[in-house]
Amino acid sequence: MLRLQKHLSLRLQEHLLPLHRSASLIQLSLQRSLLSTGSATYSSPGHFAADDYLVSTCGLTREQAANAAKCISHWKSSSNADAVLSFLTGPALGLSNAEIALLVAKDPRVLSCSVDNTLRARLARFRSHGFSAAQISEFVRVAPCFFRKFNIDVKLGFWMPFLGSPDRFLRLVKRNFYLLSSDLDKVVKPNIQLLQECGLSIQEIGSLCVANPRLLTSKPDRIRAVLVRAGEMGVPRKTLLFRHAVTAVAGLCPETFASKLKMMANILGCSEAEVARMVQKNPLVLRRSMETIQRACEFLINVVGVGTNFILDKPTILMYSLERRLVPRHYVMKVLQDKGLMRKDHSFYTLAAISASVFCSRYVHPHKNVLPNLAAAYASGCNGKIAI
Questions:
Q1: In the chain, N or C: fewer CB atoms in 10 Å?
Q2: Other beta carbons less than 10 A from residue 204's beta carbon
Q3: Which domain holds residue 83?
Q4: What is the pTM of this model?
Q5: Among residues 223, 251, 279, which one ends one of the domains?
Q6: Residues 187 and 140 in one domain
């Protein structure tokens, strides 16, 4: 009897084993199918497909989404992020799709913010400092990393009275976003005090720093060194030239400054001492590239026919565009001289220095009957279409 029972048991296992294997394969296939289906949704129970949401809803690239997803991958649904996006693109702010993508790529945690307690409150604080919705949108484009964590009242409470307007503030931030993070008491205010000690008013400092915003955010020791070097140029303090000197040396290390003086001396065929005296007359010449200065000097000497002393005495002429100002105005001068409508000894610097409207009223429009094509030729030259 025992032998019969054992035999029947073995036969039963032989029949059930294929069925068990088949059931296991079916179960595994079903599990894979369910996982695949779940990964295509944003908010399945207990799972949030962060990468897909960031790409298809927020407009990020796959690479950006991979970096940003770690900040939101623990979510169970997209409901809060949907509310944030709805608010940011709504009438209160009106961010575009591109602006949303930029903001989320730089600061994905913005999607975790409370609309009422954080975002709506931050917009109200911006507006309290004079920002319009368009200017707040501009701030998002310029400094997306700071939109959520920027200390609005502390920073704007200082910058708005100092700079005078949100537009000027945004201009500076575009060039130097360290204005948003620099320590006001340890960096910014000491730098302002150093500039005031050189005789600059708050208004002049504000204007100066539009072109040189790093004057406010660099370490005070560095700014002190810049002011010493500007003073060594021999330009009197409390003058516009001194502010130009500060602008010039702020962007140049001492080695580059010395190198530029030497190269300009070689271009002009004069001594470095003569170039130093020229730079005193217009320190901003140092901001021009050596290629630009060389081409301008070659044109002035070889085409216009002025000497080196002319350039040394009037360095501002090197600040004008060669193609769009010097060349077309010299063209008009030569045409008028060839027609006997201008003295041969007329100063080219006078023609170069006056505004475009005055130049046209004096030297182009009065001759439209005698030289009907002059205005068109001059206009074409101002667009860079006259060969040098």
A1: N
A2: 17
A3: 50-150
A4: 0.73
A5: 251
A6: no
Please tell me the distance from the alpha carbon of residue 107 to that of residue 67, in angstroms, as a whole number.
11
Residue recorded with tokens 């990393």: 145
Locus of tokens 């004079």: 130
Q: Are 282 and 276 in contact, with CB atoms under 8 Å apart?
A: no
User: Beta-carbon neighbour count of residue 328 at 10 Å?
Assistant: 23
Q: Check whether residue 160 and residue 227 sit in a common domain.
A: yes
Q: Specify if 212 maps to a domain.
A: yes
Structure-derived torsion over alpha carbons of residues 307, 308, 313, 316, reported in degrees to the nearest 10: 100
For the chain, the domain total comes to 3
Buried b (16+ CB within 10 A) or exposed e, 67-93: ebbebbeebeebeebebbbebbeeebb
Instruction: Convert the pLDDT of each residue in 247-285 to its tens digit.
Output: 999 888 889 989 999 999 999 999 999 999 999 999 999
CB 294 within 8 A of CB 320: no
Separation CA 1–CA 7 (nearest Å) = 10
Cα–Cα distance measured from residue 175 to residue 163, given in angstroms and rounded to the nearest whole number: 15
Boundary residue ending a domain (208, 228, 251): 251
Of 335, 332, 336, 347, which is closest to residue 381 (Cα–Cα)?
332
Which of 266, 274, 313, 330 minimizes the C-alpha distance to 293? 266
For residue range 34-75, list pLDDT tens digits in order: 223 333 344 444 557 888 999 999 999 999 988 888 888 888
